[in-house]
Amino acid sequence: xxxxxxxxxxxxxxxxxxxxxxxxxxxxxxxxxxxxxxxxxxxxxxxxxxxxxxxxxxxxxxxxxxxxxxxxxxxxxxxxxxxxxxxxxxxxxxxxxxxxxxxxxxxxxxxxxxxxxxxxxxxxxxxxxxxxxxxxxxxxxxxxxxxxxxxxxxxxxxxxxxxxxxxxxxxxxxxxxxxxxxxxxxxxxxxxxxxxxxxxxxxxxxxxxxxxxxxxxxxxxxxxxxxxxxxxxxxxxxxxxxxxx
Length: 245
What we know:
This protein is of the alpha/beta class. It has a single domain (about 30-245), classed as Rossmann fold, CATH 3.40.50.150. The chain contains seven helices and twelve strands. Strands 5-4-3-8-9-11-10-12 form an eight-stranded mixed beta sheet. A two-stranded antiparallel sheet has the order 1-2. Helix 1 (about 25-30) packs across helix 3 (about 45-60) and helix 3 (about 45-60) packs across helix 4 (about 85-90). The longest helix has 17 residues, at about 45-60.
């Protein structure tokens, strides 16, 4: 149970929401690609399953009208040792995807439309330096031919400002789906991106479960997050009031 309250001089409103913490685990087991993902040992633990499925939940809602169209390119940036986020996207859609991280253990997954690049990435300032990251990079990210680009940044320590600078002229519209951990991106402040929505996803088994979607370029779709707070958002609630249970 999650209990919240709103209090004024006249009334006290108590809201009780039932949390189903296994939601993303249940959804993962229902995916037809689950066997393939398991065979490739994409996820070392259940926590990371919930992070990737939570990321996919955000992607699926923001681009629900493009799930069967090859007009979207996915960039899984600083994904870790496996392309765990991009792998779900290419299994569920006809999209092209590239996963980039210097720590990738393999590149030969033989998964349709997935490219893995174990190359250096710029690290976000203010974090302890990792030996496999570098301060600056040239244009290292290949351009994928698509109208819409979407960057997946799940607990990424990469300098996404540099990534944005490289990708913003690749596509008509560029989305960022960020689940931040050590540092706040604030792309809407630091790079002029539009903050589409930000919400707490309590189905992600991590204390760092704020999902923020940014957009650079024109909007092409109406965002429709299906959760207990969606009605409040559609009636004018602020983005930070949206939560998924």
